[in-house]
Write a structure and sequence with these properties.
Its EC number is 2.7.4.22. By secondary structure, the protein is an alpha/beta fold. It has one domain: Carbamate kinase. About 35% of the residues lie in helices and about 20% in strands. It is built from eight helices and nine strands. It has a nine-stranded mixed beta sheet with strand order 4-3-5-2-1-6-8-9-7, sandwiched between helices. It binds uridine-5'-diphosphate. Uridine-5'-diphosphate (UDP) binds next to α3 and α5.
Length: about 240
């Protein structure tokens, strides 16, 4: 196993699958299956999931809502996705814990770093909900923050695209994929990996990022076993 402890970042939109809104149960099942495979190998898995399939702060602002109010609604949206994923994982026979950055004791533990680390050591998959608990941030930043706090070896950003390209491969057929790339090259080439707050936090703490396609069955396991999947961002 190449990575012993990972933080997996999934976007909220990915959960929509072919739907226009909300959560596609087939996507949940597919993700739960892949996560189970790596947990069974003994890999310690922490997860942060976005909320864009349900609500985004900027959506609220566009309809005249206060930004902070909208952001808290976005954070609650991530809790809904986290609970959905937790349910799917438990159905697949995986032990899980949900910890949230905003207290909601009936449904989740509050985020406590030492406790989260203990769960991981015991082989439980830990899901971190409600982002950072602060408005004006994103779940990418929450993912990097929790990865550093829990000393994950790497942050895995699951997307629809199988890595970082010279241009958007869905728009430009000549776009080429990077196998590895440095943080500096990402800045120089103005590539979009994560939002800047998340990206610089990752760089400052030497946390490698792998962008990969989570929608292809078995990819997560391949990655954990050291196969060349996706694009790796490091200090080089
Ligand atoms: N959000 C926030 N603080 C955080 C994380 C999330 O305010 O630490 C809010 C923000 O409004 C964001 C929404 O939650 O638009 C959903 O999160 P995100 O957009 O990161 O989810 P994704 O786009 O990955 O689905």
């Amino acid at each position: 196993m190449k990575y012993k402890r990972i933080l997996l970042k999934l976007s909220g939109e990915a959960l929509m699958g072919d739907l226009q809104y909300g959560i596609d149960p087939n996507m949940l099942k597919q993700y739960a299956q892949q996560i189970r495979e790596v947990a069974e190998l003994g890999c310690e898995v922490a997860i942060v999931i976005g909320g864009g399939n349900i609500f985004r702060g900027v959506q609220g602002v566009a309809s005249g809502m206060d930004r902070v109010q909208g952001d808290y609604m976005g954070m609650l949206a991530t809790v809904i996705n986290s609970m959905a994923l937790q349910g799917a994982l438990e159905d697949a026979g995986v032990n899980t814990r949900l910890q949230t950055a905003i207290r909601m004791e009936q449904i989740a533990e509050p985020f406590i770093k030492r406790r989260a680390t203990r769960h991981l050591e015991k082989g439980r998959v830990v899901i971190f909900g409600a982002g950072t608990g602060n408005p004006y941030f994103t779940t990418d930043t929450a993912a990097v923050l929790r990865a550093i706090e829990t000393q994950a070896d790497v942050i895995l950003k699951g997307t629809r695209v199988d890595g970082i390209y010279t241009a958007d491969p869905e728009k430009d057929p000549t776009a080429e994929k990077f196998e590895t790339i440095s943080y500096q090259e990402v800045y120089d080439k103005n590539l979009k990996v994560m939002d800047m707050t998340a990206f610089t936090l990752s760089e400052e703490n030497n946390l490698p990022i792998i962008v990969f396609d989570m929608n292809t069955d078995g990819n997560l396991k391949k990655l954990i076993l050291g196969d060349n999947v996706g694009t790796l961002v490091t200090n080089k």
